Amino acid sequence: RPMVRYVGNMHGNEVIGRELLTQLAQHLVGGYKLQDRRIKSLIDSTNITIIPTMNPDGFDRGTEGKCTGGDYVTGRFNEGDVDLNRDFPTWRDLDQTYDEFTQGRQPETKALIDLILQEPWVLSANFHGGAVVASYPYDDYRTKGQKGIHATPDHDFFKHLAQTYADNHMSMKNQSHCTRWFFKDGITNGAEWYPLVGGMQDFNYLFSNGMEITLEVSCCKYPKSYFVNNLWDQNYESMIKYLEQVHQGVKGLVFDSSGFPVQNAKIMVENLVTGNKYKTVVTSEFGEYWKLLLPGTYRMKAEVPGCLKGGTYKSSSWQKFELRENAPLLEFDMTLEESACPR
What is the pLDDT of residues 237-274, one digit of tens each? Predict the structure, then answer.
């Protein structure tokens, strides 16, 4: 089952994500007990992790009814006086060891880093407040003076994820509900909105297989409690629909020539129409892989990087496949054979 994760309240005074996720957990458990067909199918086929709060100390300092605030006193920062969404390793740290890129991180950040790296996550989202929009990577630019959309190799699917949440939300595409910013169709690229360094969604994409977006779900950071039921109604269908997006693309197992599963094999996927090369994912300890993709025509292969002593490496052949609107998920296993190393 593919692993999906929701995280709320990393900014302690942005509380609606915390409330939505607490209610969602209760709704999923209750729906499963009642044999709700949609909920039962989702839970039976998906490994769902819900973390309602990442910053309980900041939440404790927040003030109900206060719609703004960006510091320690108002509750945005953790007890260490740090903005947790500026505390994650970035593309600048990709060449560092684990000990190097976790040195000096806040305990909450370190806990999430460990969770993200230790499990084969496929999809996630983190919940914020202060705006109403679905924001997708990248959040950070790599060139000084760069402007506009900073697209990932998986831009098409990230945009699809954001649009799925906005389309199923009751007000995210209605700009009159939160007039501080204008977001066409209720979505934005993070860097184009405003660039930030050290965010959690970029860390997920750069350091793991996971694809994460940021969900801003209330114009007021800490609204009065009587608004919560209405905000639940506005977000419910989006939260469920987003979880269901993990069941598209291609998934399977990778074996060696003896039939044993292969860990850390690289899965490479190319779009045969556009020529786009997507970010590689690696297999789990059980040889599993998942790659989220939109309907289209692709080819893929699996390989274990590095030459063996005999001048060979383990690789599958390229496999062509097609995903269709009425059949968006393909299960496909691959077997690695030894081939001569490229000169």
Answer: 999 999 999 999 999 999 999 999 999 999 999 999 99
String of b and e for 149-173 (b: at least 16 CB within 10 Å)? ebbbebbbbbbbbbbbbbbbbebbb
Distance CA 13, CA 76 (A): 5
Q: What is the pLDDT of residues 144-164, one digit of tens each?
A: 889 999 999 999 999 999 999
| Distance in angstroms (rounded) separating the CA atoms of residues 162 and 341 | 41
Q: 24-27 long-range CB contacts below 8 Å, 24 or more apart?
A: 24/50, 24/236, 24/239, 25/50, 25/52, 27/236
Which residues are bridge partners to 288 per DSSP? 253
Q: Provide the H-helix boundaries in 62-199.
A: 98-102, 107-118, 155-168, 190-193
Query: H/E/C letters for each residue in 53-80?
Result: CCCHHHHHHCCCCCCCCCCCCCCCCCCC
Place of tokens 């839970």: 43
Q: Which two tokens stand for residue 74?
A: 């108002």
- Does 37 score more than 80 pLDDT? yes
The whole-angstrom separation of Cα 111 and Cα 127 is: 17
* pTM summary value: 0.95
The count of C-alpha atoms lying within 13 angstroms of the C-alpha of 338, restricted to the half-sphere facing its C-beta, is 8
Beta strands in 249-325 (DSSP E): 249-255, 266-271, 281-282, 288-291, 296-304, 312-315, 319-323
- In this predicted structure, the answer to whether residue 61 has a pLDDT above a threshold of 80 is yes
Catalytic residue (one of 216, 270, 325, 331): 216
- Paired tokens of 339: 């081939």
User: What distance in Å separates the CA atoms of residue 190 and residue 128, rounded to the nearest whole number?
Assistant: 13
Inter-CA distances, 232 with 23, 125, 132, 229, 336, Å: 8, 16, 14, 5, 47
Is 216 among the catalytic positions? yes
Supply the angle between the helices 228-244 and 155-168 in degrees, to the nearest 10. 140
